[in-house]
Fold:
Amino acid sequence: MTTRRVTTYIAAAVICGLASLSIGHTARASDTALPLPGASPKARLVSRIDTKDRVAFITIDDGRSVTDSMADFIKDNKIPVTSFVLPEWLKKLWEPTYSTFPKMTFENHTNTHRRLGRLSLEKQTRELCEASRLVTKIAGDAPRLFRPPGGVMNNNTLKAAGACGMPYVVKWSVDTAGGVVNPVGARTTLQRGDIILLHYIPQDTAVLKQVMQMMKEAGLKPALLRDYLP
Structure:
């Protein structure tokens, strides 16, 4: 065999070996990579539910301060609640509080309560997917709904939520900031399909009682969002 042919064979072997190493490295990296937003449909944004049923939806955010009075009121009245809880507080309060609620789902509210409007798609995806992973680990059920902190979001948020397995981004049609039940628009009463925003803070026990009274006066019953967002 000539020297030129030997050199050619060696060069080919080296190239094939490097290609093999590169392919293997790529495969291993993809195992831990974030999901590709383009591979999943964007989440749908909802702020109220179009339904003929006489129901409204109580949603409570953050989760760091679940008072005994609020917990007792929810349990005693068997109120279905959609909770958008940070994983840190879900973990801390799981055994003493959250695991005792009979009609509650635990959804995604980001991992660190970051405002998403100025974050890149990659950073939003990482924030949402990590939160879903942790909530699933703690509560045993993967979130299907996402609520952006403060309602701050952009089009990338819809892509990130879809990539992390959540088909819906949920805002609200009734706010309760400052202890005042405030439906969006000029109306002063609750309507069927309303999504009502509260927080796990001491003063919102009274607000929750007010909301329940307003629902009764409007002929409405509370329901879980997941039952109306398949």
About this structure: The two ends are 70 Å apart (CA to CA).
